[in-house]
Design brief:
The protein has about 350 residues and is an alpha/beta fold. The chain has eleven helices and eleven strands. The radius of gyration is 24 Å and the shape is globular.
Amino acid sequence: MKRAFLFFIVLFWVPKLHAQVNQTQQMVIQFLDTLQKNAYMGKSMQWDSIRPAFIAETRHINEVNQLKPYFEKLLKTLKDGHSSLFFEETGQDKESEQDQFEKMAVMTDKEAGIPPKNFQHYMINSKYAYINVPPVMLENRKYVDTIGIQLKNLDAQEPKAWIIDLTENNGGNIMPMIWQFPSLLDTDKTYAYIDSQGKETTAITYYTVESPEDLTYFQLFQLEPDQVKPIKLRHNDIPIILLTSNITASSGEFFTAHFKGQKNVKVIGQKTGGLTSGNAPFNINKNCMVMLTTSVLKDRNGKVYKIAEGIEPDIVFPIDMKPKNGKTKLTYNEMQEVIKNAKQRYIDQAIAVIENKSGR
């Protein structure tokens, strides 16, 4: 009986182990193919040597979870500073019911452990409309609805200028971020994405459904363009000030690029964080998604940004970022604190430019 029991275990365990090894090998190949085909920095990689070396390095792995550090290490070798991995570790032989992108579409900030978004809007001196545009990764529909309500409220108060605060915006998803702002832009198309082959794709300001894939994407986020239309702002020919900081990054920078170069717009603050590269999601399998840098920014004026190059403001507003107490560099949280403490100075500078008191 004991021998029979042992045979039973071996008979059913070996095929499972074999299947698991195949799954990890398939993930490795899929990951390599995705990077080689789509990564903006992939053109600088020696794939003829990288591929066989990576396959050999991961050949012994028979559990999906163990692939995570290898994938992260290879992503870093791209040196784009922007690509990232979303990896859900699960029990052996278990695959997620939904892929990571689908989960992100319905996950809340609280579930992800992300602090609540800092939504703020108010009138300054009963003349200037101020709105803080926070970063957004999750709760996209709620974000669009909230920003829309705020803009509509401000527009009804007859503003003489707009002050759009991006100083705390370190990125996320540009789609919900810019969704409610098209009527403040003077064109339907603004900047462009340039991929590794030099192909340009112009960014649109009004989102439309061009394919079944587009419709699936919009439905996932409950943002079908024909049902969730951007609000129409009446006060769109007045001065617009964008406030930026060193931590304005990624989609916060692309938001800036939508506006920078427009005749009634001034960007005030510091050079942005330098994530002026476009990312796209690629599912490796349901447990693993890579947010891969596939393009760089070409702004309205024709400037093509290099990897890690930030956007220069039209008017530089210096703030002290020098570390104290013997430190060589401020932490990200310390930088955030400095920027928050300087918020009133940013706003005062914006008002001075609007009222032409700064001479610029």
